Amino acid sequence: MKRIIKKIAVIGSGIMGSGIACHFANIGLEVLLLDIIPTDVTDIEKQKGLTIESQAVRNRIVNEHLSNAIKSKPSPLYHPSFTSRITTGNTTDDISKIATADWIIEVVIERLDIKKSVFEQIDTFRKPGTLVTSNTSGIPIHLMSEGRSDDFQKHFCGTHFFNPARYLKLFEIIPGPKTSPEIIDFLGNYGEKFLGKTSVIAKDTPAFIGNRIGIFGIQSLFHQVKEMGLTVEEVDKLTGPVIGRPKSATFRTVDVVGLDTLVHVANGIYENCPNDEAHELFKTPDFINKMIENKWLGSKTGQGFYKKIGNEILTLDLNTLEYRPNKKASFSTLE
């Protein structure tokens, strides 16, 4: 069967969902981007005479998320005009529109119960033969497809993009127990040929490949940074370009990805890999838990390990958990 992808539906418009939508727009596809409706109306919307039934209100979340993604740097789009290829909507009023999509990608919050609810909706409205994939960072693929139709399970697997979706090359494909081999072959080739990725087939193990390795490294650092007496700037100096990694290094990368996403994956490994020789390493330290409690999640909440106020960059002091002016890290061996 010759499969042609002309239209993509992305369910979930957060940092990853909007980024994935933009990258498919980059390669010329029509994209439908959906998210949930708000629970209330803002004061500004009330002043405009809008209600919860107004389309502008019902699509506020998806439109704000996409707008923020488009403004982000580096840009998720090859050209600003490609935004016209993305249509937004919400999962209450517009979910039936996924029937016109050739590939539906789920990118909602990392909670199995919510993902299964989304897949139940997708199974209702998708046309037979449509690809359905999840961008989960580490939730087992076989758990998400339980109870779905045979056709759904045959065309379902994990397709894990890394943030930012336009720029990072790794594209993990994780088969489910009933995924057709033809689907896996198609996605691997599509990732390489059209998306500019390096496609890798991963086993359905906690956190798959990239995040199993990456979370181990970051969690190891989290547990050692305070006892080593290093600042956020010093760690990013030592773990960036000087060792062949991007300049976002460690803490800036966490801010971009989202601390909540990292903790979700770490918790998943901790809970599902009790016999791992580094099991305790995946338990998040107290200062990370406090940041989660404060919603200092990174770029998505305006502050994380770094915080920008005007043109000034502030840095989190890991001992006091207070922000201070950025201090340039300097090591004589690296100057």
Helix content: 25-40%
Structural class: alpha/beta
The level 1 CATH classification of the largest domain is Alpha Beta
Q: Label the overall shape.
A: globular
Q: Sheet bearing the most strands, described?
A: 8 strands, mixed
Features:
single chain; 335 residues; alpha/beta; Rossmann fold; N-(1-d-carboxylethyl)-l-norvaline Dehydrogenase, domain 2; 2 domains; 8-stranded mixed β-sheet; 3-stranded antiparallel β-sheet; 13 helices; globular
Describe the structure.
With 335 residues, this protein is of the alpha/beta class. The protein folds into 2 domains: 7-201, 3-Layer(aba) Sandwich (Rossmann fold); 210-330, N-(1-d-carboxylethyl)-l-norvaline Dehydrogenase, domain 2 (Orthogonal Bundle). Helices cover 36% and strands 16% of the residues. It has helices at residues 15-26, 43-47, 55-58, 60-71, 112-125, 141-144, 150-154, 181-193, 210-224, 232-238, 251-257, 259-272, 286-293, and strands spanning 7-11, 30-35, 86-90, 103-106, 131-134, 156-161, 170-175, 198-201, 306-309, 312-317, 322-325. The strands form 2 sheets. The protein has an 8-stranded mixed sheet with strand order 3-2-1-4-5-6-7-8, with helices on both faces. Strands 9-10-11 form a 3-stranded antiparallel sheet. α1 (15-26) links the parallel β1 and β2 (30-35). The longest helix has 15 residues, at 210-224. The model has no long low-confidence stretch (mean pLDDT 95).
